[in-house]
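Handout, page 2. Input:
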Amino acid sequence: MKIFFCRVLILGLIASFWPLASQAGVFARGLTLGSQRPEVKILQMLLNIDPATRISLAGAGSLGQETDYFGEKTKSALIKLQNKYGLKSELGRLGPQTR
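Output:
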């Protein structure tokens, strides 16, 4: 229970500082299908905060099992986020507008 609470707290802090993280260079480069970098794990953690953009309920990429690989599930979850916020010009990739 303590680990879950700490993870939720950390994810909440990351989400609240998304703009600062972007400015600080966490998402300095774009991410696309097939990318394998530490930033993908941060992206997956952020996507997993919102049930509407959750990557998966279980397995790789799910809450607590985020990876550094940008696969089809991450792409699908990112598209959900982009549709939610009207970022349709770069669907499926983390580009300047989404950052």
